[in-house]
Design a protein that fits this description.
mainly beta, disordered N terminus, single chain, 125 residues, globular, four-stranded mixed beta sheet, four-stranded antiparallel beta sheet, Immunoglobulin-like
Amino acid sequence: MGMGILTGCLKNEEVRVSINGFYNTPESMDDENTIVLDGLVTGEFVEIVIDGEIKNFKHIKVIYDGDKNEFIRKEVINSFDTLKDKTIVIRTYMPDGIPSEVICWQDETGKENEYFIREYNLSDE
């Protein structure tokens, strides 16, 4: 099951970050160069394919504050200063409701990108 694709757009489009969700083990886990990380829970998989170079990659635990109507970043679960042409698989769970994990990174222009790990469908943007 694919979860969706998020593309980090640069002026020259040198960097592309694709994110896919799987209920079953993705084929990329068989590649010895794939980085495999543990999320907060297990049972599903999120695959992040990086074509190009990104910086300040963080996999973060978040909680939702209903009073403020916002997510609060609680702790960094995994992080990397720089990743280039890498595939990362996170063993986690994609909830239908409120997410508990987010990944974020910076492209070469310094633009911050984020992606909440949750179940997406065709009506989600």
